[in-house]
Amino acid sequence: MDIEADIIEFKVPYENNKTLFIWDILPTFSEAFIYESVSKIFSDFGALYLVKVCENAAVAEPGYYAIVKYYSSAQAYRAQRATNGKGLFQESPVKVRLCTRQNPAFTNNVKPLSSSKCQELANRYLGFNGWSSKVVTLQDISSSDGAGDLGTGAEAEELTLKYGCIVELTFPHHEANCRGVGVAEESFQNDPGHLEMCMKRGKLQKWAKDKALVDAFRKVMLILLSSGKIAVECRLDPDEILPDEDLEGLIKVNDISWSQFETVEEEDFLSELSFNVSHFP
Q1: Three-state secondary structure string covering the chain
Q2: Along the 281 residues of the chain, how does pLDDT read in single tens digits?
Q3: Which PANTHER family match (predicted)?
């Protein structure tokens, strides 16, 4: 018997076959009730990246529609087949279809998940005891490019703080592990007071750790087998060296852009989608 496998990656799902469009939702329910009902029903088929409930356009009949985004195309397909034409949480049936069109430009701008989304996804499939993370090293690397020193003249008024972090992910039940690197920095005018400096350092340390965690999860693939078992694979770059020490030298070579870790807002994500309902029966 062939065993089918579904792969889930820790990145923002952009594929149109992972997005469901649900409409013919009655206006008799509140938006909050619809959101909770849709989330509960469709999460039974797999982890959800996004649930969005909107009012119908003014030119349409009163009511709502919803958008549900999965990490897995197979789960989205099963959910569509199981829920289309059913009443779900109302007496009259709703229509459920896969997204039919998408802006091609979005496929070239794939982004990693946020730190909170990564942990949420890992907890869903591996459990709270199925993975762990630890900080290998966290260092102030402001001095690596001359930042952090105040001199004389107008240009010397700007102070830059910069932290680098290495985080290691471990999956004890799968004998897999990987590491990620995160960099956080902030520039500001004039020398801040002691309290403000402490607060900024704490914020940057947390930011660097979050980015390192995201970078580590970026290398992880969850393989969902039809038997119900889950395998974990870590994609390692043979040219990547993540030592326990000498973080400063590592960051100089592999400095990571902030934009790589910017989170995609729901509104930005939805603006990249378009739905063609004219062909739906």
Answers
A1: CCCCEEEEECECCCCHHHEEEEEEECCCCCHHHHHHHHHHHHHCCCCEEEEEEEECCCCCCCCEEEEEEECCHHHHHHHHHHHCCCCCCCCCCCEEEECCEECHHHHHCCCECCHHHHHHHHHHHHCCCCCEEEEEEEEECHHHHCCCCCCCCCHHHEEEEEEEEEEEEEECCCCEEEEEEEEEEEEEECCCCHHHHHHHHHHHHHHHHHHHHHHHHCCEEEEEECCCCEEEEECCCCCCCCCCCCHHHHHHHCCCCHHHHCCCCHHHHHHCEECCCCCCC
A2: 455 788 999 999 988 899 999 999 999 999 999 999 999 999 999 999 999 999 998 888 899 999 999 999 999 999 999 999 999 999 999 999 998 765 554 555 678 899 999 999 999 999 999 999 999 999 999 864 444 444 444 455 678 889 999 999 999 999 999 999 999 998 877 767 778 888 889 999 999 999 999 999 999 999 998 888 999 999 876 656 555 555 555 554 444 444 444 444 444 445 445 444 433 44
A3: RAD52 MOTIF-CONTAINING PROTEIN 1
